[in-house]
Write a structure and sequence with these properties.
- The chain starts with a helix and ends in an 8-residue tail after the last helix.
- By secondary structure, it is of the alpha+beta class.
- It binds 3-[3-(1H-pyrrolo[2,3-b]pyridin-5-yl)phenyl]propanoic acid (0RA).
- 3-[3-(1H-pyrrolo[2,3-b]pyridin-5-yl)phenyl]propanoic acid (0RA) binds next to α4.
Length: 646
């Protein structure tokens, strides 16, 4: 308690509440992760999670989220409504307690576990503390109740503003610019993919997202409704929409095992990628944990037993490894845990030991039944697993080759790499440049002290469609591995990257600013996403943004990155302006490339990060898979989906 507080003899609890709210404002990232784009969006998830809780308790079936014109957010649900009666201990309305007391968590009774939860499950009071203004409207007990706040401070006691026979909670909040200093603008797609994910994870709930900031081309309001009747089964189908399934049905399980609610859905497809997405209390556990271990164990066990008893593996001369059972597998594991222990770097790894057995049992049960009832599918899976095992043996050899080359560092670097002289990786950058000619320009233009250039020949291998050993045998890919100094774990079941010898902390993809260029950038990104995900997760991957135009008039010249910028420059320079459109990096000379794209003082680079793992997986499979039309449309619409300027 502060001295000031003691002097005024406030009640201990109200001081704690105040200090709690103030603490959130002083250390916001402790509560919402960061004060950038992520934290901003996290506020929405925090409120929505409370509505999801109401839905899971059986009191709510519709949640509406609206991005208002001024980038404030309104969420609305038809749950019971936040209680408004007198909170005995605090002496004020329960609504006020929920909104202004950190750790009140919304629910007062501890008997039901908090099933959903944001990054840290901190409650709406935290959103309130970080909003310059918030209004809570509660429909309950035949009346409409209201209270408003500024930066978490109550503006007036809870009042009634009318009668109503409905139930529910409406919260409108405007994030505080004093806290969110990076951006206050909500990204529709970011919210849409999280809300879609929530609808899949919690079937039967209707979630509506509306954007009132602008209209679409036809003048209609932008709005999407997410609703899933089948839950995870549908989620798997959605993720695999552009992959070719190996079986007709999604294999699914839903039930309780040792008191832990477990839901699993999976399907095999013809690809070589493993796509496991796991959730605990609706939180994506990027780093996995005991539920994922349980899934793997159950899967390997059951399939191994089946394969052995089927006789199909009798002639196999080598062991089948865990990985082989997961090639071409897309699966979602969702569990609900009363007191989840989150571990790991980003606190997204489930630590609760007991969960492993529950999931493993659920998977064994579900798979055993399925294999018995679908002998044809069972045979297809086993054959696929055998093929994977054979390919893995070939890949292992190829991988060892890459490894050996990486280990011998002297003379081991690829001949095409123009290395920098600096030795400290934290200060070094490497540009992956499309084509030898642009590579030449970049080599001349760079600052050789800390910038290295690795030219790549034309289109690099599409790893989405290639088997692992082909990937490791590919010259360009081998060059990337050796140039970066990255190796892959050789231990069974671990394809973990070893980044300790990473030679550059900034890896910059530099391609032409046209459709072909973005296709190549996407191929490289796909490779990083599937084979070096940790590089992206650790923020090492960037995309260079070369300008599209050079506008000249007399001695004046200026670069433009968009059509709008170009028009503005032309307007400023006036009649007689000459516009040069850069069709590729090759059209720039070394000095221009340095000035616009490589010089850290003036360039803008986009740092690549994975916003939503399952959505990223779906997009890469769509972009790089067999179906051409959705890919073309996407590339034309988005050029490259990376964000955040760096
Ligand atoms: C505290 C207790 C109860 C519900 C809620 C809070 C609640 C919070 C939010 C936030 C958004 N929508 C919400 N809906 C409900 C339990 C209510 C009861 O026991 O009647």
């Amino acid at each position: 308690m502060s001295e000031e507080a003691k002097k005024h003899n406030y009640s201990a609890d109200s001081i704690q509440a105040l200090e709690g709210m103030e603490h959130v404002r002083m250390r916001p990232s402790m509560y919402i992760g960061d004060v950038g784009v992520r934290g901003l969006h996290h506020l929405v998830y925090e409120v929505v999670d409370n509505s999801i809780d109401e839905a899971l308790a059986g009191h709510c079936d519709t949640i509406k989220v609206t991005i208002n014109e001024d980038n404030s957010i309104t969420t609305e649900d038809n749950g019971r409504g936040i209680p408004v009666g007198l909170h005995k201990k605090e002496g004020v309305s329960a609504l006020e307690v929920v909104m202004t007391k950190i750790g009140a968590g919304g629910k007062f009774d501890k008997d039901s576990y908090k099933v959903s939860g944001g990054l840290h499950g901190v409650g709406v009071s935290c959103v309130n503390a970080l909003s310059e203004h918030l209004k809570a409207t509660v429909y309950r007990e035949g009346k409409i109740w209201e209270q408003e706040y500024e930066r978490g401070k109550t503006l007036y006691p809870v009042k009634t503003i009318g009668d109503s026979d409905r139930n529910g909670t409406v919260v409108t909040f405007k994030p505080d610019p004093q806290i969110f200093n990076q951006t206050l603008e909500y990204n529709y797609d970011t919210l849409a993919s999280r809300l879609r994910e929530l609808a899949f994870l919690n079937k039967g709930i209707t979630v509506v997202l509306t954007d009132l900031r602008h209209k679409d081309e036809e003048g209609n309001v932008i709005s999407e409704t997410f609703f899933s009747e089948e839950g995870l089964t549908e989620f798997v189908k959605y993720l695999d929409a552009t992959r070719e399934p190996l079986m007709k049905d999604v294999i699914a399980f839903e039930g309780e095992k040792n008191g832990i609610p477990v839901e699993v859905a999976m399907i095999y497809n013809t690809s070589y990628a493993e796509n496991l997405h796991s959730y605990v209390n609706n939180i994506n556990t990027h780093e996995g944990g005991t539920h994922l271990t349980g899934f793997r164990r159950g899967l390997t066990h059951t399939l191994k037993k089946y394969a052995d008893s089927s006789g199909l593996t009798d002639k196999l001369k080598f062991d089948i490894s865990g990985d082989d059972f997961r090639e071409g597998l897309t699966a979602i594991i969702s569990v609900k845990v009363a007191e989840p222990q989150f571990e790991g770097q980003t606190k997204t790894k489930l630590g609760n030991r007991e969960v492993s057995a529950s999931v493993s049992q659920a998977v064994s049960e579900m798979l055993t039944d399925y294999l018995e009832e679908h002998p044809d599918d069972a045979k297809t899976i086993v054959q696929k697993v055998i093929l994977a095992a054979q390919a893995r043996h070939a890949a292992q050899k190829a991988r060892e080759m890459v490894q050996r080359k990486t280990v011998m560092s002297i003379g081991g670097l690829p001949g095409k790499l123009s290395d920098c002289s600096e030795q400290d990786p934290a200060k070094c950058e490497v540009f992956l440049v499309e084509g030898d000619s642009a590579g030449g320009t970049a080599k001349q233009g760079r600052d050789r002290a800390f910038q290295a250039i690795l030219p790549l020949r034309g289109k690099i291998l599409n790893v989405e469609k290639a088997m692992q050993h082909k990937v490791f045998e590919n010259e360009e890919i081998k060059n990337i591995f050796t140039a970066l100094g990255v190796t892959i774990g050789t231990e069974e079941d671990s394809k973990a990257l070893n980044l300790s010898k990473l030679r550059y902390h900034k890896i910059v993809i530099m391609c032409d600013a046209d459709i072909d260029g973005s296709h190549i950038a996407t191929l490289i990104l796909t490779f990083f996403f599937r084979y070096m995900k940790e590089l992206i997760e650790n923020g090492h991957v960037y995309i260079a943004t070369p300008p599209l135009y050079l506008v000249k008039r007399g001695a004046k010249k200026r670069y433009a990155w968009t059509d709008k910028e170009r028009d503005e420059v032309v307007a400023e320079f006036g009649d007689g302006s000459k516009i040069q459109r850069y069709k590729g990096l090759g059209e720039m000379n070394a000095e221009q490339l340095w000035d616009t794209t490589m010089n850290p003082e003036f360039r803008t680079m986009r740092q690549v990060h994975i916003e939503n793992g399952s959505e990223a997986d779906r997009i890469f499979s769509m972009l790089m898979g067999d179906e051409v039309p959705p890919r073309r449309e996407f590339i034309e619409k988005n050029a490259i989906y990376a964000n955040i300027d760096a």
